[in-house]
Design a protein that fits this description.
This protein is mostly helical. The chain has 6 helices and 3 strands, in the order H-E-H-E-H-H-E-H-H. Helix 1 packs parallel to helix 2.
Length: 226
């Protein structure tokens, strides 16, 4: 867990790994997508934590203020959403025929993300009864938490759907999550609207087009400096 530490490039770890690196990779792959002269899709993966984002566009890495690891992760995932939607606008405005950009939120998935490489717990100095109660509560919570998350296969299916569904062949600039409806067979809605999130997270609505453009410029600047 290296959030709020700098990478070898001098960039805050969480923002580089979760946002700037995929941003750069996508940018480098676009010429290849164009060269195929066939339909291509860019699928960006975000998560529920993006709703907690509080981004200062002038300080994407959180270096001007006290860096908070959880907030940096949330900010990186919100950046993924905003840049994914902005990329679709650039595809349409730049004449990139056959390439679309969408965002998928697979929701919370049961993985080792929150436990892998976790720092060792400090030894408790509480009295024995308090320690026993704490261990009992911790055990109960750990047993309950996985049941609230989705299986990895479920999360992967959402990404696969957005990347391959014939109904989304020419659809771009949308956020999808099956908490808003089934991806397939969603009643009277058009097939391309199945699982579409019509109401973006509040934090995403705080950024207008001018902010998106500034965000994009700063992202490109950071990547070129790496």
């Amino acid at each position: 867990l290296k959030a709020c530490q700098d990478t070898e490039d001098g960039v805050e770890w969480s923002m580089q790994v979760n946002y700037l690196a995929p941003f750069l990779l996508t940018d480098l792959l676009i010429p290849s997508l164009q060269a195929t002269q066939s339909a291509s899709r860019v699928v960006h993966v975000t998560c529920p934590e993006m709703a907690s984002a509080d981004i200062d566009i002038t300080d994407l890495e959180g270096k001007e203020k006290r860096c908070n690891p959880q907030k940096q992760y949330s900010n990186a995932k919100m950046a993924t959403l905003v840049s994914g939607l902005e990329l679709e606008q650039r595809f349409r405005g730049g004449g990139y025929k056959g390439i679309t950009s969408n965002v998928i939120n697979p929701e919370a998935v049961e993985t080792l993300f929150h436990t892998k490489d976790a720092p060792p717990k400090k030894k408790s100095r509480s009295f024995m009864p308090g320690r026993i109660v704490g261990q009992m509560l911790s055990g109960a919570i750990s047993r309950f938490t996985p049941s609230t998350k989705r299986a990895p296969e479920h999360g992967a299916y959402g990404m696969y759907h957005v990347a391959t569904s014939p109904a989304l062949a020419n659809v771009g600039g949308r956020l999808f999550s099956d908490t808003w409806g089934n991806f397939v067979g969603c009643g009277n809605q058009p097939a391309e609207d199945c699982g579409r999130v019509f109401k973006l997270p509040k934090a995403a609505n705080d950024y207008d087009l001018r902010s998106d453009l500034e965000w994009w410029r700063r992202s490109v600047t950071d990547d070129r400096n790496e």
